[in-house]
Amino acid sequence: MKSNTVLYILSNGKVAAINKKNGEIIWEVKLKQYLTTKVTMAIGQISVEENKIYVASTGILLCLSTKDGSLIWKNELKGWGFSFVSIANVNNDASGAAMQSSNATTVNAAT
Questions:
Q1: pTM of the complete model
Q2: Distance CA 67, CA 56 (A)
Q3: How far is CA 39 from CA 14, 28, 75, 83, 105, in A?
Q4: Interior CA angle at 28 toward 23 and 34, to 5°?
Q5: In terms of DSSP bridges, do strands 52-57 and 6-11 run parallel, antiparallel, or are they unpaired?
Q6: Number of neighbouring beta carbons within 10 Å of residue 22
Q7: Any idea where the domains of the chain sit in the sequence?
Q8: Could you report the per-residue pLDDT of 3-25, keeping only the tens digit for each?
Q9: CATH of domain 3-110
Q10: Fewer Cβ atoms within 10 Å of its own Cβ: the N or the C terminal residue of the chain?
Q11: Would you say 10 and 45 are in contact if contact means Cβ atoms under 8 Å apart?
Q12: What HEC string does the chain produce?
């Protein structure tokens, strides 16, 4: 399935891929299967880049495959505590950069 037709969600300790056209669940995984601690990942943030989903919550960072939610790697952020983890992406949106470039070209051409 094309990546622009899929929405990835995190809720109640699960990550799921949702078909944007009809709302059906394509796949879902329970994150506790990837953890060695008893911490639950009820809330958090996710970020998607290419074929990877980054999931951050309660002092843990996971990298999952967009294909099926399988674990690629994990970092339990030892020594960071168990509070909320925030994720920021920098320069990972090629379409946004292309749109900005196109808008700048249009403005320059109009002046």
A1: 0.71
A2: 19
A3: 13, 19, 13, 11, 50
A4: 155
A5: unpaired
A6: 7
A7: 3-110
A8: 689 999 998 889 999 999 999 99
A9: 2.40.128.630
A10: C
A11: yes
A12: CCHHHEEEEEECCEEEEEECCCCCEEEEEEHHHHCCCCCCCCCCEEEEECCEEEEEECCEEEEEECCCCCEEEEECCCCCCCCCCCCCCCCCCHHHHHHHHHHHHHHHHHC
Condensed to tens digits (0 to 9), the pLDDT of residues 87-96 reads: 776 655 444 4
Both tokens of 75, joined, read 């970092």
Q: How many degrees, rounded to 5, is the angle at CA 56 between CA 28 and CA 12?
A: 45
Query: In this structure, which amino acid lies at residue 36?
Result: T
In contact, 6 and 66? CB cutoff 8 Å: yes
